[in-house]
Amino acid sequence: LVSARGGRRLAFGMTLSTAPKPTKGFWHAVDDVKPEAAYVVAPVEAEYPLAENVHVIPPAVLMERMLPLAG
Hints:
The chain is an alpha/beta fold. 25% of the residues lie in helices and 34% in strands. Strands 1-2-3-5-4 form a 5-stranded mixed beta sheet.
């Protein structure tokens, strides 16, 4: 999923795994789209980085972070 709003482009992947490992397709999409940030939404306890500008993030933390962007 890619979201563009107010000049910002963000990419999202979702998984039910508590040890997410994005697919090759996710990485290709991130490379093609070149989002400002990419998030893998997963049922984890806390956010952590996977790569530069790519983070695994719990759904609740993502919602808190994205709410102010809703305008």
